[in-house]
From TrEMBL:
<feature type="transmembrane region" description="Helical">
    <location>
        <begin position="153"/>
        <end position="176"/>
    </location>
</feature>
<feature type="transmembrane region" description="Helical">
    <location>
        <begin position="197"/>
        <end position="226"/>
    </location>
</feature>
<feature type="transmembrane region" description="Helical">
    <location>
        <begin position="30"/>
        <end position="50"/>
    </location>
</feature>
<dbReference type="InterPro" id="IPR009597">
    <property type="entry name" value="DUF1206"/>
</dbReference>
<feature type="transmembrane region" description="Helical">
    <location>
        <begin position="112"/>
        <end position="133"/>
    </location>
</feature>
<feature type="domain" description="DUF1206">
    <location>
        <begin position="203"/>
        <end position="272"/>
    </location>
</feature>
<feature type="transmembrane region" description="Helical">
    <location>
        <begin position="70"/>
        <end position="91"/>
    </location>
</feature>
<feature type="domain" description="DUF1206">
    <location>
        <begin position="112"/>
        <end position="181"/>
    </location>
</feature>
<dbReference type="Pfam" id="PF06724">
    <property type="entry name" value="DUF1206"/>
</dbReference>
<keyword id="KW-0812">Transmembrane</keyword>
<keyword id="KW-1133">Transmembrane helix</keyword>
<keyword id="KW-0472">Membrane</keyword>
<protein>
    <recommendedName>
        <fullName>DUF1206 domain-containing protein</fullName>
    </recommendedName>
</protein>
<feature type="transmembrane region" description="Helical">
    <location>
        <begin position="246"/>
        <end position="264"/>
    </location>
</feature>
<feature type="domain" description="DUF1206">
    <location>
        <begin position="31"/>
        <end position="96"/>
    </location>
</feature>
Length: 274
């Protein structure tokens, strides 16, 4: 048992060390380009929804749209590699980057944040890879299926409510980072582009925060009403916004905000601290 644990620790340490290489650094920057492209496509699909058109306004819809374009498969594989490199870089940040902090609480917070991002980017790399290999999935259905399974587990309803509250908290955090301009701490000085990058980030983070909060509310509603279909992920969250009074204007504003977040992510590829 001890040998297995030591072997796992050595594997993680080796991966983290590899994540500091110049090649991974360049690929990790490219990862933000693909994250930006993903948000721009989701925003574009959401804009189509305001005209009664479009498909799934989420990762699956965006990646499916990209896969259908000439050369889309190559782009998807490139996105998988770049996001995997970004996950590896964040793993190295969790292992080594936090060491620069002298305060133990800040060190733990920085390491935990980087580790969480590594998981997210690794899952994103996997999703890119699934579509690149010709697969696909319905994110809304997947979210509903996951909710149904969790609902059937012991204390499943409580877990769903906690999950919904966590997603809402994440949305509030995104909005706060946007309004407070905290995201600028992730960047080197953009120089003459500072004002543009700042406004893109403010609008983008706020829009993503609103959408995440709505997704969290839908998870809680699904738990309380015992109706898993109400938990329909990002696509369901955007369509719920569109169904409200003046929803067309609200959805268009959020869609534009997601596009801004996408452009900001591309700017982060250039100006981000690595």
């Amino acid at each position: 048992m001890g040998n297995a644990s030591q072997g796992a620790n050595r594997a993680v340490s080796g991966a983290a060390s590899a994540g500091r290489s110049p090649a991974v650094r360049v690929l990790a920057r490219t990862g933000y380009v693909f994250i930006g492209l993903l948000h721009i496509l989701i925003g574009a699909i959401a804009l189509q929804l305001t005209r009664g058109q479009g498909g799934e306004a989420d990762q699956s819809g965006a990646l499916g749209s990209l896969a259908s374009k000439p050369g889309g498969g190559i782009l998807l594989w490139a996105g998988a590699v770049a996001c995997a490199a970004l996950a590896l870089w964040m793993l190295s940040e969790a292992a080594f980057g936090a060491r620069t902090e002298t305060d133990s609480k800040k060190k733990l917070k920085k390491a935990a944040g980087a580790a969480g991002k590594a998981v997210i980017f690794a899952f994103l790399a996997f999703t890119f890879g699934v579509f690149a290999a010709g697969g696909s999935k319905n994110s809304s259905q997947s979210a509903s299926d996951f909710t149904a399974k969790l609902m059937g587990a012991p204390a499943g309803v409580v877990l769903l409510v906690v999950l919904g509250l966590a997603i809402i908290a994440g949305g509030i955090l995104y909005a706060y980072r946007g309004v407070s301009r905290k995201f600028m701490e992730d960047l080197q000085d953009p120089g003459n582009a500072r004002t543009a990058v700042e406004w893109l980030g403010i609008i983008g983070y706020a829009a993503k925060g609103v959408v995440l909060a709505v997704v969290g509310v839908l998870v809680i509603v699904a738990a309380v009403t015992a109706d898993p279909s109400k938990s329909s992920g990002l696509d369901g969250g955007l369509k719920t916004l569109g169904a409200q009074p003046y929803g067309g204007f609200l959805l268009a504003a959020i869609a534009a905000g997601l596009i801004c977040y996408g452009v900001y992510s591309m700017a982060r590829a250039r100006y981000g601290k690595f």
